[in-house]
Amino acid sequence: MKQRYNKYSDYLKNLFGAGIRKIPVNAGFTCPNRDGSKGTGGCTYCNNVSFNPFYGIKKKSVVEQLNNGIEFYSKRYSVSGFLVYFQAYTNTYDEPEELKKIYSEVLEFPRVLGIIIGTRPDCISEYLLEYFSKLSKRKYVSIEYGIESSHDRTLEYVNRCHTYSDTISAISQTAEYGLHVGAHVILGLPGETDEMIIQTADRIAELPVNSIKIHQLQIIKQTVMAKQFAEHPESFRSFTVDQYVDLVVEFLEHLRPDIVIERFISESPLKYVLHPRWNGVRTYDFAKLVQKRMEEKNSWQGKLFKSV
Ligand code: SF4
Prior knowledge:
Blueprint: H1 8-16, E1 20-25, H2 62-76, E2 81-86, H3 96-107, E3 112-119, H4 126-135, E4 140-148, H5 152-157, H6 164-176, E5 180-187, H7 194-205, E6 211-216, E7 219-220, H8 224-231, H9 241-254, E8 260-263, E9 273-275, H10 283-297
Parallel strand pairs: 1-2, 2-3, 3-4, 4-5, 5-6, 6-8
Antiparallel strand pairs: 7-9
Helix pairs in contact: 7-9, 9-10
Bound molecules: iron/sulfur cluster.
């Protein structure tokens, strides 16, 4: 069967061979959108607790979390190496020397092949990029930016406190340093039509992005968005799994064919999710639905990509 999109698992396999696992860690950072330097209260959809696995709760040191993650995966799977994913909050938001100390600590682990740093487009510096670029000569380094949308109106509405032009500069600069650029987008943010979402795919396709994570908007309990949803449910779109599959397929058609697709859905634990509650749909099932729909439509990633 022909693979219709660039799978992340194939990318990892080509790069490192089989048996690579990602271990998410929480280094206990905050973000400028919470501590008042850019905003307070955070992005309206953010409740970071729902993004982290049990061993990534910051009651333990990063080293402890990593040890637990290694033990967890080693017991269940045949593993040849690990990538440490700095996932929670903004993982470049501290003093550079402190950051370097934290990154170096995990890279000393024998089977750790590299790091993935989740951050915001307005939280990266030339100094860090230079450091990451040197590091990438001996370890895998990926910088993953939360883009979320290419529409400033949406970014403002969800209180991201950065603009799409910040995204363009951060991603261009990161690529100039020869680093792997990851991207994260959310489909279905309030006020966005399908056309706007596809416009984001077209815009991302023009950037030097190497891989992307696509997530459906999830309304998580105890967030500003949960309150907005309770007050004005009509302002939020509601996708069935089938409708979301169609949207994802269209999004993929507009992306550049070489971009690696890391995932299609977010899987926050159901106890945190208010909407949509697609009970039981896992990442793996969803990927199969996307592949099937692409076959039915004779669709493929990049089918409608137009370079300008
Ligand atoms: S989503 Fe990221 S940038 Fe937004 S408040 Fe949460 S941690 Fe901060």
